[in-house]
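INTERNAL AUDIT FORM
Audit reference: QA-55
Scope: verify that the stored structure record matches its stored sequence.
Auditor: D.O.
Record contents follow.
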Amino acid sequence: MDNFIVSARKYRPDTFQSVVGQGSITQTLKNAIKSNHLAQAYLFCGPRGVGKTTCARIFAKTINCKNITSDFEACNQCESCQSFNQSRSYNIHELDAASNNSVEDIRNLIDQVRIPPQVGKYSVYIIDEVHMLSQSAFNAFLKTLEEPPSHAIFILATTEKHKIIPTILSRCQIFDFNRIKVNDMVEFLEKIARKENVECEIEALNIIAQKADGAMRDALSIFDQVVSFAENEITYKKVIENLNVLDYEYYFNLIDSFINNDVSKVLLVFNEILEKGFDSHQFINGLSSHIRDILVCKDKNTIQLLEVSDSIKDKYLAQSQKCERNILYEMLEITNKCDVGYKISNNKRLHVELALIKLANITAIKKKVDVAVSGSTPDTKKETDKQLAKSNNAEYKEPEKELTNKVKEVKTKLSIKEALNKPNIQIPQADPDNNIQHENNESNDFSEDELHNKWKEFAESVKLNELRLANTLTSSIPKLSENYNIEFTVSNEFQKEAVLNKKNEILAFLKKELKNFLINLTVQVIETEQKQKLYTQEDKFKHLAEKNTTLNTLKQKFNLDFE
């Protein structure tokens, strides 16, 4: 039986064209070879598994190739290429700075740099994880890096560019490698699967690519693992089972439950997720990502940000039609707060459950406020408008008829300029209380306890978006006086203005809920006496002496003073 070779080694790119997801970098390197503009030192930086060392090796092989192709790729046929492919090349030297980071190691490297290549034109020195070099090693390396022999080229690779000292950076051409996109990974994995005669579903490869988090080496390692588990038949269910990834369906079902305000189902689904062994913190982060993906589907310009297969994308698009954009914003805010407070919470399960309960009540609160404030529900709007018209001692008019009458009225009215020029014409003054509902003797009675309950209910409905107003409304208890007048007291003018700005909405809510259209609201400021702050020792003594006069006698008798 042949020895197994892991996919990360077996399918490691050996030409610029076969490198995945780094097109701009490979093209720049090929152009440098074409124009013979080779730098003395290069710095390849980026996250793990994105092709830094691979590109360094391909570059080193290509510049020493004796028969470079018309596309400026290595021929893989000449002696230099063959020796490189068989790992016996004396032109390319690799050094791991993680384990060779001392001054002595760099001095040995400097001595080696002086020796010209035996085969080929250049000696290439690839130093991996260069940020691990000590400060003294960096200093020893500086002179050689600045003025190396003409045959020497240095390629430094690192995952932590910020740890490289500026004097090294200034001597290198810097190439920033990107994380590899999910679609590029899926395409590459699909090619490997065909070569290995492995049957696979696109959704399964998509999960592998997402799990790899932009690193192709990680994706290939996961691919090998899943192939062993799935026995050459990679399916979506087998992948999520092997990788312990939460199924998309859980998130789709949760969003539907949020929309339907089904708190019980939400809690049962979360319990099922925990019983399957999933971490609640990862779950809440996954839920945030799911809501974000729904949000990007709301706009055709941002759908391209969705990194999922076409079949899953269709589900996101369908669910995005059920969710309002503002609701999604509020959901993201709740999940983000849950994520931030998760680590400091003592009861983590309850912490997540409270967030889920809030999510399941967002649409319910919105519907209730909409109905109470604007009567926007189709079934209740007409009836509410009739009641409001009746409370104003006015006749209810159909919207279409009212609009027609207004147009006619505008045509017959004089302009303000004309009215000002004619002294005999009086301009009607606006009624400051026009938005306040007038009295109607047919309204129902209600108790003060009922008023308090509905008052708290309105304060709770605005708490999510207007916390200060909610706190103001609950800072004191409204009192019911004669003729259904509600008296509410606040402590300053700012609070009074905040309540008055919401006066119409408060009245509309209370009138509908209490079924009484005679209700009115007055807001008064009752300033509380501020206690004098005691700063000095003398002030504190005087304050205490006013309550106990013997303190003055004690102070005089013992000739006490303040320090």
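Auditor finding: record pair retrieved intact. The first strand starts at residue 41 and ends at 45.
Action required: none
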